[in-house]
Every structure is written in structure tokens, then in C-alpha cells.
Amino acid sequence: MALIAASGFFISYWGASDAWFDRSFYGVGRSHATHAVDFDQLARAALSVPGAQRLKIITLQRDGQTAIAVITFGDRIDREVSVDPATATILGVRDPQNAVIFRLYSLHTRLMLDRLGFDGLGRVALIVIAVNTILLLLSGVVLWWPRRWRSELLLPVLRRDHRWRDWHNKSGLYACVPLTLAAATAILLSLPVTRELGTSPQVPLVIQVNPISQETPLTLNDFVRPVTQSLPDLAVTGLGRLDERGSVLVYAENTQGDTRWVVVDRQRLSIEAVRTADPFTRETDPSFLIGLHQGHRWSAIGQAVFAFASLLPIGLYVTGLVLWIRRRGRSGAKRLPPLG
């Protein structure tokens, strides 16, 4: 339980965590572009990797310091290519499934059983652990609840003679609400029938044209231009659906940092729609539940609170183990005082 919760801390800050785990791939420490990005130049650089066939997605990461392109190779396995936006230099090529952050995601969501072909079993195991987490937290609060309520019981005060117990109590109390909500939403996210909770359906917009590949001249900047001209309050961060037959998706952010999906017609190079969710998603969009699960539905402060709470179970289980060992060692001797 503690490992699953702790891995959620890194997943909550996915981009920063991935760059920290795989510094060479992101080119951390290099000088990067701060001016307008030439997406055509970056795409040509990504497609120059031996074996590359089609460009699927290209996005800017870490505030435009690195460009990540998703490329389909001859073996039909996707690879990620990182490119320096300033020089169009290839920084690295990797299989994303072998990246640390993706392994942590597999642990967090399926106990890594999905990598062994047991996705359904991983879902069931996660639900059992989430239910057990809720029961442990609630039962811990019931056992701690004092007979006489005093506000100072909530303060982070550690008594010399009861330091382990105070660490245990405070860790459980401070993490109880966010962890209970995170465990409850984890159950819902593991059930396909509830992943659409709080979302509205998006109607796909498809225009049949040829996909972009090495054999087709790249005109990514042409897709970016109508967005920058018609929607000057949006900053373009990438393009998607480049390997499919249909409209191109231009990813952008407004001044508040909210993501927008701009649908651009390939033939007329005109804006078809501006959406707050991916209009081409083939499965139910769980963004509402993910917002509750990670806490970012309540701004960056809520996300930070949930991320910090995800680390507390490590201390909760360590101190609980120490208290259990001490209790067994003192059984038949002096009885421990009440938890409150």
C-alpha cells in the first residue's frame, strides 16, 4: 500500500519526475530555445532517426525546453525521440514502456501485472488494496479518537515518551481525508463503467485525407499558424493525430495554464473547433476522476496536498510496525496507554 501511494507522488508530477529519472533523454543542463519553435524542423529531425516511419505526436515539454516526438518504427512499436528545440539536435531515443515513470505508473495502477498480461487481475488487486486502505484509515481514526476532545491533539507535537505513537497518529490524521478520497477514486478508475463519471461525451470530427509521413512533405507550421493568428491568447505546445486520416489536433495552453485542443482541417487549414477535452479520444475520458484522485481539481495547492499525503503512508506503516513489535514485546508486562 505504501509503495503504491508513494508512486502516486511521482505520477502526480509526471513531467518533472520523468525528466528527473531520465535526465539524459531530456537533455537536462543544455541550452534550449526561448523563441518561437519551428515544428517542421523538429519533426524532420525526429524522423531522421534510423528506422523511423511515421510521426504521430510532437509536444513541447518542461516549458518548451525539450520537444518529445512519438515515432512509429518498422516493427510497429512506438518510440519517443527527444529533440533540442534550439538546435534540432537529437537528445535521445527510448521505448517509453521501459522508462521509470511508466514502470511506476504500471505499479501504481496494476501492480505491474499488466506487463505480464494480467490487466484484469491487476485491476482487482488494486481495488482490494484500495478498499483495505480505506478501512485501515477509518479504523485508525476510530481507535485514535479521544474521549475528551482537545484541539492540541491535531498539532504536530511529538512527546518524548510516545514519539513513535505520535508520529503514527499524526501521519494517519493528516493523510486520512486525501488518501481516503484517492483510494475511493482509484476504485472508480479501475472500473470501466464508472470512468466516465463527471465527463461529457465528445463528438469526433474526421476529414478523410492522407496522413503525414516521411514520404509526405511536413507542414506542421501551417497547422500552427491559424491557431496563433486566430487565437493569440493560446500558446501552442504540440500537435497530434499526425499519422491518422483526419483533422490535426493542435495542443495549446491559455494564460492560466489550462490545456485546449484545437481541431484544424488538413485541407483548408482552418480551425474546426476548440475543445477543453480531446475530441478524438476513443475511450471514456476520466479527467474528472483523475482531478479528484490527484487533487489538482483544487488548483496546484490541492495537488501538492495530495502529493504530500501520498508519502505519509510510508511513515504510517513503519511506525505501525514499530508499535506492533513493541506491543508484542511488552505483552504480559506493562500495558500500553490508550491510543488517544
Oligomer: single chain
Structural class: alpha+beta
Based on CA inertia axes, which overall geometry fits? elongated
Low-confidence stretches: 199-211
**Approximate strand percentage:** 15-25%
Describe the structure.
The longest helix has 31 residues. 27% of the residues are buried. The protein folds into 2 domains: 155 residues, no CATH class; 109 residues. The protein has 10 helices and 8 strands. Strands 4-3-2-1-5-6-7-8 form an 8-stranded antiparallel sheet. It is α+β, with helices and mostly antiparallel strands and 340 residues long.
Give the structure's gist in a few sentences.
The protein is an alpha+beta fold and about 350 residues long. It has two domains: about 25-100 and about 205-285, no CATH class; about 125-200 and about 295-330. Helix content is about 45%, strand content about 15%.
Describe how the helices and strands are arranged:
Layout: H1 2-12, H2 14-21, H3 23-26, H4 39-47, E1 52-61, E2 66-73, E3 78-83, E4 90-94, H5 100-110, H6 119-144, H7 163-190, H8 220-230, E5 235-240, E6 248-253, E7 259-264, E8 271-275, H9 287-294, H10 299-329
Antiparallel strand pairs: 1-2, 1-5, 2-3, 3-4, 5-6, 6-7, 7-8
Essential attributes:
8-stranded antiparallel beta sheet; elongated; alpha+beta; 340 residues; single chain
